[in-house]
Amino acid sequence: MHHGEEKARVFVSQPIPTSAIALLEKHFRVIRNADDRILRRNELKKALRDADGLLSLLTDKIDGDLLAGAPKLRIVANMAVGYDNVDLKAATERGIMVTNTPGVLTETTADLAWALILGVARRLVESDRYTREGKFRGWGPMLFLGTDVYGKTLGIIGFGRIGQALARRARGFKMKVLFYDEMEVSPRVYERLKARPVTLETLLREADYISLHVPLTDTTRRLISREQLGMMKSSAYLINTSRGPIIDEKELVRALKSKQIAGAGLDVYEKEPALAAGLKGLSNAVLLPHIGSASVETRTKMALMAAENIRKALSGKRPPNLLNEVRWNRGKQP
Ligand code: GLV
């Protein structure tokens, strides 16, 4: 840093693991929202007026209007693998780099999907509540009978990093693994995992557990709606650790209520943090507050990865996880 030269300013929109803050503070002037709450739009807008970099979270809606009020902004480093909260096109038009945090949260998210599978199948949450409420009167031959996971058929929708990580777990449970992906997956990848590519309809009709691992895009929005729920077995469970809008939540509530399907394990919702009417009251659904990547180890890696993307971008280097083709090597703006 030359004498008199001002350090670039980086805004961090909510508290994150401190090692990432320390990394940023070594190089930049870090401005933080120290409150543990999601910023209102006008607060974020104000914070971005003189920011060169933003470490954003998926609760920050980064659209063209917001970016228009951020003349110095050069990078949005989203601390998430999904980036449907960022208008990539608007950022690209303004020459703003956008990055995400792929890879580091794969196993952690697959673990949570697995926890949801076991949790809904064996009725963990209901049983826990029952025990706490003092209702446990001793072992019962008919007490909380659930469904087996071992040896059943798993249907994975979206066979990228996380979908494949789920397939690896399924092998230990001797499950038959089907997957559907709109993109071509190399046989080298799925043969090793003993997974079989099928159409979406076949997957829906045959799987006992269906788990979603697609990003939210125009083609995946409401991929699971009334028709698709209607194809599922009445004994099947639906697991979602991807993005809420992949499922038509109102239709899901209807299907769960009428026992058209057996149950659901959800970590994400269509209109987070709101839940569709009726969802809360269903005992055949396990509902989590979007904690797919929420382990200390993984959140630390994600925060450091986002910070490193900012460090690179603001020193004229290509950030490792760049998502859009913008000029990353231009100098500081006048
Ligand atoms: C979390 O939802 C993520 O996309 O990382």
Automatic annotation (TrEMBL):
The keyword Cytoplasm does not apply. Pfam families: 2-Hacid_dh, 2-Hacid_dh_C. The keyword NAD applies. It comes from the Bacteria. Residues 10-324 form the D-isomer specific 2-hydroxyacid dehydrogenase catalytic domain. Keywords: NAD, Oxidoreductase. Residues 115-292 form the D-isomer specific 2-hydroxyacid dehydrogenase NAD-binding domain. GO terms for cellular component: cytosol. This is D-glycerate dehydrogenase.
